[in-house]
Amino acid sequence: MSKVIASNRKAYRDYAILETVEAGIELKGSEVKSLREAKANLNDSFARLERGEVILYNVHISPYEQASYLNVEPTRPRKLLLHKKQIARLMGQVAERGFTLIPLKIYFSDRGFAKVELALCKGKKLYDKRESLKTKEDKRDMERGLRGRDR
User: Fold this and answer.
1) What range does the domain containing 80 cover?
2) Does the residue 134 lie in any domain?
3) Which residue of 49, 56, 94, 149 is 20 to 30 Å from 76, comparing CA positions?
4) Does residue 94 contact residue 121 with C-beta atoms inside 8 Å?
5) What mean pLDDT value characterizes the chain?
6) Are 47 and 106 in contact, with CB atoms under 8 Å apart?
7) Mind listing the pLDDT tens digit for each residue in 17-45?
8) Which letter does DSSP use for residue 111 in this model?
9) CA-CA distance, 56 to 79, in Å (whole number)?
10) Predicted local confidence at residue 122, as pLDDT
């Protein structure tokens, strides 16, 4: 992975991430230019499986200013590019166990293609969020204690 354009930090807090998949994203030319300027937002975005395709919703890619009439709607649904086997596996897991597909980050690969890191997630309950926050604080306190001991 090279340059990360946008990341969905809320997803790590609100969901238990089970596995991730790298997917290409179908974009128009002005959207690619806008992504190169890092004008994207992944808040409240999700992916859905429809008719054997994975569609990404609510990703806001700001219109490129120099494109004028060639700009498209900022939050339009975008098709994700995955292999048929990957789509079939995701379809089975989402339908069977009730998981959700959440984009974690958008970035440009080493070859210059826009990619989306898609995660298979299960929503955390309130007590799970509290527990993960507590373990994070405990870890931070232990690190702080070890750091002070070395001096």
Assistant:
1) 4-124
2) no
3) 94
4) no
5) 86
6) no
7) 888 999 999 988 888 888 888 888 898 89
8) T
9) 6
10) 86
Q: With respect to residue 131, please indicate whether it lies within any of the assigned structural domains.
A: no
**pLDDT confidence tier of residue 150, bands split at 50, 70 and 90:** low
Q: Answer whether residue 151 shows pLDDT above 60.
A: no
Going by C-alpha positions, the residue among 105, 100, 93, 75 that lies closest to residue 10 is 105
| Amino acid letter, residue 109 | S
The three state secondary structure string of 25-88 is: ECCCHHHHHHHHCCCEECCCCEEEEECCEEEEECCEECCCHHHHHHCCCCCCCEEEECCHHHHH
The alpha carbon of 45 is separated from its chain's Cα centroid by a whole number of angstroms, namely: 8
Q: Which two tokens stand for residue 24?
A: 């290409």
- Say if 107 falls within a structural domain: yes
* Structure tokens given for 128: 């799970």
Structural domains counted in the chain:
1
Is residue 30 included in any domain, yes or no? yes
